[in-house]
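TICKET: design request
STATUS: open
ATTACHED STRUCTURE:
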């Protein structure tokens, strides 16, 4: 991405975020994929994704406490896990045009890296992290509540853990239990990426995440979307 295109992306991101950055470097970093960063990923959005993940969790947890004052932790936990899951974050990022704002190396761009759920989810968390560092929790909260409002409004009942829900689906139909398999592993030891395949009968789906458990959850969630209710 050229410097002019990068500036255009930053401008578009500020419009989306509803915030003019006092530290523009934070926004540029949040929109820079590892492939377009310097040596060893310096200047990529990974560090901002790290803090954005924590900020997002706090904001959503606080929101759920307010929205469901009578629910216990056992119900709030699954709500939180579902709302900050990679599929949900990727869907929100995609629907808000974040893919087009990302700076990605030309080769990776041709391979469709912008459309990967992990890349989209990480970029959204990085943007939240950048907002937090530039303007504080209130600004990050305002943005998060605005773009997550539709998803939160749809969550009437506490969602089940995707792996549990998939297992129950199989048991109700007298099918073998879901079988999970790691089909690919990449990345350095401090930031691995796992691709896990899950199979129930003839139905198959794959999930990708930074841990086996998270990849399993994503695979189960994607397979549930494919299966009949």
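STATUS: resolved
RESOLUTION: sequence designed for all positions
ATTACHED SEQUENCE:
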């Amino acid at each position: 991405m050229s410097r002019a295109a990068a500036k255009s992306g930053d401008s578009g991101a500020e419009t989306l975020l509803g915030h003019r950055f006092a530290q523009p470097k934070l926004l540029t970093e949040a929109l820079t994929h590892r492939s377009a960063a310097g040596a060893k990923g310096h200047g990529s959005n990974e560090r901002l994704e790290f803090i954005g993940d924590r900020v997002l969790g706090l904001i959503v947890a606080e929101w759920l406490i307010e929205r469901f004052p009578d629910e216990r932790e056992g119900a709030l936990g699954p709500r939180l896990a579902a709302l900050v899951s990679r599929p949900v974050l990727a869907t929100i990022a995609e629907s808000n045009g974040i893919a087009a704002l990302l700076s990605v190396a030309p080769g990776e761009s041709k391979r469709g890296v912008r459309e990967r759920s992990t890349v989209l989810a990480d970029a959204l968390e990085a943007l939240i992290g950048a907002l937090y560092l530039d303007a504080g929790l209130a600004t990050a909260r305002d943005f998060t509540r605005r773009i997550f409002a539709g998803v939160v409004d749809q969550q009437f009942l506490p969602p089940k853990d995707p792996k549990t829900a998939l297992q129950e689906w199989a048991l109700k139909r007298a099918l073998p239990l879901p079988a999970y398999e790691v089909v690919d592993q990449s990345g350095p030891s401090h930031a691995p990426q796992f691709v896990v395949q899950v199979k129930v009968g003839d139905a198959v789906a794959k999930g990708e995440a930074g841990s086996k458990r998270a990849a399993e959850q994503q695979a189960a969630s994607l397979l549930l979307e494919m299966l009949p209710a």
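CLOSING REMARK: The longest strand covers residues 179-186. Residues 1-5 have pLDDT under 50 and may be disordered.
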